[in-house]
Amino acid sequence: MNAQPLAAPANADSHVYDVLVVGGGINGAGIARDLAGRGWKVLLAERDDFAAHTSSSSTKLIHGGLRYLEYYEFSLVRKALQEREVLLKSAPHIMWPLRFVMPHDPAMRPAWMIRAGLFLYDHLARREVLPGSNGVNLRTSPVGKPLKPHYTRGFVYSDGWVDDARLVLLNALDAQEKGAELLTRSPVTAVQREADGWQATISTPQGERRVRARALVNAAGPWAESFLREVARPARGEALATKSLRLVKGSHIIVKRCFEHDHAYIFQNPDKRIIFAIPYEQDYTLIGTTDVELPPEALAGLSKAQIDAQEVDYLCEQASRYFAKPVSREDVVWSYAGVRPLLDDASGDPSAVTRDYLLESNTQGAPLLSVWGGKITTFRKLAEDAADLVGQMLGDKREPWTEKAYLPGGDLQTWIGSPRRPDTDFERLVTAVRQRHIWLPERLVRRLCRAYGARVGRVLGGASSLSELGAEVAPGLYEIELRYLQREEWARSAEDVLWRRSKLGLHYSEAQRAAVADWFQSHPQPAD
């Protein structure tokens, strides 16, 4: 493309940006970060909290997608496998390697097919950190103990785990540190396309705000289609084309810990789907996911997706096919659901719909980029491709930079020296923080290191004793951390802290959660 650089709008001021990004999920935050790091002036607007919807409701895996090989999605799997170790190295505090056990059920898939799939999975992309696959005797291995005795043979392979909501937060933090402006609780209520830019109206907590941007990125996730249809106004005589999305709800249940070891399970179901059973928050097991297709109108007025009774029963039934101790509805202590916006590829089965992404650029007037589909594992590559396209549309190509960059808190060198391996580096961080802050309880040290990585000192400030952390609002949660989350991580409510900035809500009683809500109510919140 030999486009000439688009001139910045006249009278450039604080209300004029190079790029307006709509959506604060993983794709929007990742794109804002990449663009800001290339020197663009970026504004991101999110109608709710960061990761309030799909991006905090995943199965929380950094994985290639073993089952996608059955649908011949070799390009997607390779791309995702390449990203696994890039991401693990960028933020070892919120991502770590995880081994998966697949019990073999001959009625599902023959052993030769699984071995062939795992061979491809091991070799489609280079591995430096993650070990390859192998067979396992479930009669003698500890990973076979929680299973029914007729499962005697299995396979073990590697993928990764991620705290999905914190991944979004780290991208937002990095975007801000590189100059982007980020607004939460600020829906874009109107955008008007003109020849040389977009006029946008944003409803912020401080009041209505009008801004101008040279380019618009639509990263609204499940709402990407309705945003173009209902909010974006084309130039006179023009129509904004949209893609057809398939909205698929994925739900998960949390139960008390089903096994003692640190591996996860992948279970094959009679309907040819799979579910995972994953160690979660020390004391629990995460089981999911479902694939329930929703009609487009289901998004209208949807504030939060909810699991239904049939999904709970399905997950309990499928897990109970494998575990010696059945999983029942009474065992469920928490659940969550999210809506995945998948590209409509005419697949009849929702679980077969592609998880790949499409970036659609439109230069019939001011540049517009719409993000369709995608999965959390490939967010960095998606953001890099999107930033390339934005630069192309603006006629000013700028070099990518994120592949070898750390996310905030991911560079542990000031604590532990040169990095070795992401998994062992984290344990070295925990040791270093405990040595420097011997007065901190061990469980609190580990939680803070997991959440904040190298930024843990920033959270603690100059505190040198527990009393200097302020009041203990709930067990292990002190005022100094809450003020940090308010000040630097856009936390505005107890829900933000208990279910997205952390998962402490899972460990607290109703009264303890209410104490956190009371703290937010009684402490003025700084303006964004």
Radius of gyration: 23 Å
Secondary structure tally: strands: 21
The fraction of residues assigned to DSSP E strands is 15-25%
Shape: globular
Poorly predicted runs of 5 or more residues: 1-12
Oligomeric grouping of the chains: single chain
DSSP helix fraction:
25-40%
Q: If you average the pLDDT, what whole number results? A: 92
Distance between the termini: 38 Å
Topology:
Elements: E1 16-22, H1 26-37, E2 42-45, E3 61-62, H2 74-90, E4 95-103, H3 111-123, E5 134-137, E6 153-162, H4 164-177, E7 181-183, E8 188-194, E9 197-204, E10 207-218, H5 224-231, E11 232-233, E12 245-256, E13 264-268, E14 274-280, E15 284-288, E16 292-294, H6 309-320, E17 332-343, E18 357-362, E19 368-373, H7 379-393, H8 413-416, H9 422-436, H10 442-452, H11 456-460, E20 472-474, E21 477-478, H12 479-488, H13 494-501, H14 510-522
Parallel strand pairs: 1-2, 1-10, 2-7, 4-13, 8-11, 10-19
Antiparallel strand pairs: 3-6, 4-6, 5-6, 8-9, 9-10, 12-15, 12-16, 12-17, 13-14, 14-15, 18-19, 20-21
Helix pairs in contact: 1-4, 1-7, 9-10
Please give a structural write-up:
There is one protein chain. The longest helix has 17 residues, at 74-90. Strands 3, 4, 5, 6, 12, 13, 14, 15, 16 and 17 form a 10-stranded mixed sheet that branches. β14 (274-280) and β15 form a beta hairpin. The chain is 30% helix and 24% strand. The chain has 14 helices and 21 strands. With 528 residues, the chain is of the alpha/beta class. It is globular, with a radius of gyration of 23 Å.
